[in-house]
Amino acid sequence: MAVPFIDLKRFEDGFLQCWAQKVAELSSTASFIGGEEVAQFEQTLSRLTDSKFAISCANGTDAIQLALRALDIGRDDLVLVPNMTFWATFEAVVNVSASPITVDSNLSDGGIDFIAFTEAVEKYRPKAAVIAHLYGWGTVNLKKIRDYCTENNVLLVEDGAQCFGTQYENEPIYKGALISTTSFYPAKVLGAAGDGGAVFTNDELLAKRVRQLANHGRTSHYGYGLVGWNSRLDSLQAAYLNLTVEFLPSRIESRLNAVSFYKQHLAGIGINQIEAPLDYVSNGYCHVGLVDNERLKQDIEISLKSHQIGFGNIYPGAMSDQECSHRYMHAHVGGSYAQQICNTVINLPVFPYITETELNSVVEVVKSACEEK
Ligand SMILES: *Cc1c(COP(=O)(O)O)cnc(C)c1O
Questions:
Q1: Domains along the sequence of the chain with CATH
Q2: 222 C-alpha vs ligand 1 centroid, how far in Å?
Q3: Tens of pLDDT along 18-58?
């Protein structure tokens, strides 16, 4: 049975009718920018993330740039970034004219390596660091990193594009951050009908600066206190997200069921299925398998392809291995575990309302590829 890597078309009963009605309503009143939908969505975000301030913006990449700019990170400032993350984490640092220093990842959870992180801080005294919470959880050392950054005056930005709904020490992961960001790209756990993002913080001044930067640095309609840009979330996206948020718990539950189905049925066959460290409750963003045996990884992928089962490699290449990255990088710190993850990672299909029949097909194909070995 063919199974897509991700299927975004499995809406709850009645969802599309509600959405069509919303579009008609907002269109008939030409409510396209700002307004009630955006205000309501920001209130919901603030509640769900337990953050005092939630500022919506145009996408998750802008959200990181807004956070960096609000912290006054700019020309020639050194900023640590994980060597394994989505390219936008690296890109955001370069786009604010700062210089990234890549730091190795750790194999147990895919997060930034704490030892390499402290080495990088001691050696380069960076002004800031951006870490990314990949796969639906954060690193086991998150609290240590937060405390270490506070003690060493490193401004910490947390790229939480993949962890909306994730709990850390029984609280939303964003709550304990100085400043954190997310993305509402459709394939994320809370996805829009297009692009969207947000910045979360408990610091009022930072929140004010983010909001101002995202709206041309405005102080009044034609008065400008900063050079920002246009990074607003539009009202239709906010309306879609307001409708979606109601179903977030059941979507997350369905994702988590899929991940634990794989965990259970693919145990002991040569795939190291990594998962959220103990202090976390994951949002089920994805399944992560590491296959050290190169031949086996290839066989699994060939088999999945031939059965029309989608899979991912999140991510296939480290930041420091991208064609252009050395033009911008100040340095790299640590070893090459990031590359090891990139070379061995396979992600199996996970999306809301994937069926047990689909999960069984995936499991059968992966198992038989492993058993042939
Ligand atoms: C998706 C993602 C982003 C970028 O978000 P966009 O909304 O696509 O700009 C940044 N960082 C990580 C880790 C992501 O997964």
A1: 15-246 (3.40.640.10), 248-372 (3.90.1150.10)
A2: 31
A3: 999 999 999 999 999 999 999 999 999 999 999 999 999 99
